Amino acid sequence: MSKPLVVITGASSGIGEAVARQFSEAGHPLLLLARRLDRLEALKLPNTLCRMVDITKRDQVEAAIAEAEKVYGPVDCLVNNAGLMQLGMAHEQDPQEWDNMIDVNMKGLLYGIHAVIGGMRERKSGTIFNISSIAGIKGFPSHMAYCGTKFGVHGISETLREEVADDNVRIVTIAPGAVETELLGHTTSSDIIANYEGWKQSIGGAIAAKDIADSISFVYNMPQNVCIRELVISATRQQ
Ligand code: NDP
C-alpha cells in the first residue's frame, strides 16, 4: 500500500533535512518547504515536491500544501520544524530579532497548522509534530525571546492536542536539547556564540539531527490510537 504525504517545514538543513531523509527512506511522498530551494533540491529525494516557501507568508504555505495534496493525496503528517534562534541579552538585542523569531517560530508554525488541521479532523486521522525545545520548558540567559517563542510552541501544541484529541488527530511536541545544526549561525554576538560552543563541549557535544529524526519516526509509527504527547531529547550530559 502506498504511504501518505508528509510535509516538513525547514527541510533545507539540520533536523528538517534529517527528518526528510528518514521519511523518504520509509517510502513516504514528501513536500519540503524552505527558502533555500537549492538545498531542498540537492537532497534528490524521490516522490518529493520542493517549494521555496517563506513560512511567515501564510498564502505561500497554503498554496504549496494544496499543490502537494493534488499530487500525493491528503497530508497525514506535518513536521512543523522551521525555526530561527537569535540569541542576545535583553538590554542589548535589536528588537527586530525578537520580531523575526516570533514570525518564524510561532506564526509560521500556526500557518502550518492552519493549512492541514481541518482536513485531518475531517479524516479523523493525522499527526502534527511541533518542534519546540528544552528552551520551551526552562529559561536560559540570552534566550529571552527565543524561549518565549518556544514556551509558546508548547502552549499552542498542548492546547491544540486537547482540541483535536476527540477527532483522533495526534499532536506531538518535540523538545530537543542542543543538536549539531546551523541554528546558532543566526546569532550575531560572537561572545554568545563562543559561550554556547564552550557549553556544548562541556556536555560532551550536542546530539545529531538524526537522533531527533529517529525519535520522530518512532512516535509516528506507533498506532494512530497511541499519542506520545511530548518528547524531550538531549545529550545525556545536558542538564
Ligand atoms: P537549522 O538552522 O539547521 O534549520 C532551520 C530550518 O528552518 C532551515 O531549513 C531554514 O530554511 C528554516 N527556516 C528558517 N526561517 C524560515 C522561513 N522564514 N521560512 C521557511 N523556512 C525557514 O536549525 P535546526 O535544524 O537546529 O532547527 C530546526 C528546529 O529545531 C527549529 O525550530 C529549532 O528551534 C529547533 N531546535 C533546535 C535545536 C538545536 O540545538 N539545533 C534545539 C532545540 C530546538 P531556510 O533558511 O532555507 O529558509
TrEMBL record:
Top-rank taxon, per record: Bacteria
Q: Which UniProt keywords apply?
A: Oxidoreductase
EC number(s) in its UniProt entry? 1.1.1.313
So what does this thing catalyse? Answer: 2-hydroxyethane-1-sulfonate + NADP(+) = sulfoacetaldehyde + NADPH + H(+)
What Pfam families would the database entry show? adh_short (PF00106)
Indicate yes or no for the key word Repeat: no
Say if the entry is tagged with keyword Phosphoprotein.
no
* This protein's pathway: Organosulfur degradation
Provide any one GO MF term from the record. oxidoreductase activity, acting on the CH-OH group of donors, NAD or NADP as acceptor
Q: Which PANTHER family match?
A: DEHYDROGENASE/REDUCTASE SDR FAMILY MEMBER 11, DEHYDROGENASE_REDUCTASE SDR FAMILY MEMBER 11
Q: Which family does it belong to?
A: Belongs to the short-chain dehydrogenases/reductases (SDR) family.
Q: How does it assemble?
A: Homodimer and heterotetramer.
Q: This protein is called what?
A: sulfoacetaldehyde reductase (NADPH)
Q: What is the lineage of its organism?
A: Bacteria, Pseudomonadati, Pseudomonadota, Gammaproteobacteria, Oceanospirillales
